[in-house]
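Q: Second attempt. The first request was missing the SMILES, so the protein and S-adenosylmethionine are both included now.
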Amino acid sequence: MDLNKNQLSQIFTPDYLAEFMVKNIKNLYLAKQGIESLEKIKILEPSAGKGIFLKHLITEGFTNITAYEIDQKLETSLLENYPDVKFEFANFLGSNPNEKFDIIIGNPPYLGQNYNAQIFQELVENYSICKKYFVGNMDLFYFFIHLGIDKLKPGGFLSFITTNYWLTKSKKTGIKHLKPHITNDCFMIQYIDLSKIKIFKDAKGQHNCIFVLQKKKSLEKEKILDKHIQIIQINKTNDSNSLDHQYNELLFSKILDNSNHNHIKKYTSGLTNADLSLQSNWNLLYPREVKEIIKQIESFCMKNKNLNLLGDYFSIRNGLILIKDEFFILKENKQIIFDRDNILIKINNRFTKLNPLEKKRLKKIYKSRAIKPYGYLTEEQEGYLLFFNKSDFEQLEIGERDIQISKIYPNLSNYLKQYEKELKKTLENANENRYDFYFPRRGSHIRQNRETGLVNLEPLYDNSPKIFFKFISQENIFGYALDQYFALSDTYFLWSKTPTEFSLIFLLAYLNSNLVAFLFKAKSLAVKRSKTKIENGIPLPALSKFKSKEKRSIIELIQLLTEWLVYSVNSFKESDVYKFSSQLESSSYLRTAENFTYKDTIIKAMNINDAKYIQEFINNLFYQLFDLDGNRIDYLIKEYYNV
Ligand SMILES: C[S@@+](CC[C@H](N)C(=O)[O-])C[C@H]1O[C@@H](n2cnc3c(N)ncnc32)[C@H](O)[C@@H]1O
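A: Got both inputs this time. The predicted holo structure:
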């Protein structure tokens, strides 16, 4: 088999990184196995390249080194530069699995199976290790890990730098054999995340990692021992695409010295080796201290031994999809004019007055930029949606439907008829019924469950309390409207499936709280088109966990303060404060001796419309409700999520 340069994957490791990996594995080996003379330690570099790892291994005092390299062109210089290394200029995958080593280190070749099927087929035909572990969609370096594991002595270490995609791949893809092989035979003891920095000049946009495996001894295997995983995370905030060797070199020397640097995080992963054997997606960058807090939060969200999830109670659905926004969203002073109680619509360049039933077909509609915590920006209204509800006409034949619409809504019908051809064409192109040109294409109904069947959302958009959020967002910003709020598909609505144990106002407070902000960060819940992360990632509190009087009084006060926030954010009127301050009098939380003084500060904040203070107060009430220390959460956010 003659391989070209790309197929050999000749991307060589920078000097500082090979130096780091060698020193790091030496430290780990000596710490775990005790000091022994370095000459005894048998080392393997399976894909030597120009020998950068060999250079540092020798500098560090190792002498018993074996190396493989398939490319004959590198032979002369390798032999010349490293006369004491035992070289095999052959395919490493054909090497004898029974020859065992204490340390295996290197940068194996990366080559995707998808685009190199022929090469993989030849490997499978020629080498038993490849035959045993071949699976579609894999990478060549997986074979290097498999054979590396087989060639390790019990207690021995393997450290490779590779791309990091295999860690989060699910079972069905190329890691089918790799992950079970690792967890059966080894402990992952260290994982270094390099995804935020660039290491290799010619590998554009590549995300890398270094990992260290330790082969299990037979007793460890029998007793099913578990071990923690040490994480080193390099958080470089500037452009991860630019190559800055000098800076990288500094960072790696800091890791070795054990000195602090604000771009280096060291922590124990929330996942242990036992977790790895159960999970297919190895989300290692999940600090144990963060996981402990998440567990604590979730312990208040357990109902009948199950975790209460947002998706158990609510369907998350997009707003409306229209056939053409520009025809259905009428802009004030363009397509429509408001004249005292009258509304006029422009048809063929003339304005005509709408009848009372027609006026009801115009709905306030918003895009997601209008959304803010606890409410929305009224000034961001997109316009007025011309909304016919399909279910009002369902019983009628198509022809009759047309007649009926033009009878009840003559002007709106005439308005739309101007665009009838274009609207019908758009529907035809989308393979939808051309006669449906009056109606939104999606978002006016949802199917919830068998009992309720198809739910008509018009009355809910019109005048029921509802929670919504942007369909792409990094933060937990949940808007709220009591009155008419229609939105386009860049908004997600929460529609109730089954009644919750808490009021919608309480849930609104919870969703906008710092506690959920923490969940967003810890579980990387950013809303990105897919809603499943939010449905399954946000646990909802269970009422039965808050039985004590004190907890009930906290919930009551959260609700009251949140009602004030909704008022304040949407339409602050000073007179409203009186209503709230009299309700505060009856708050049992504020009646206790230790909390008594807060009442005045809350009223003061309300008087000057200080929503920030009230929000902070609510945040603290949530911490108390979940028995959490707010300072600790602030610390964790600062420590791990760079804010
Ligand atoms: C990514 S480079 C790394 C080289 C070196 N370890 C370093 O870090 O600079 C991979 C090397 O493996 C060699 N190689 C590719 N397939 C091989 C195989 N099956 N057996 C041994 N060496 C191989 C390539 O020629 C290349 O030099």
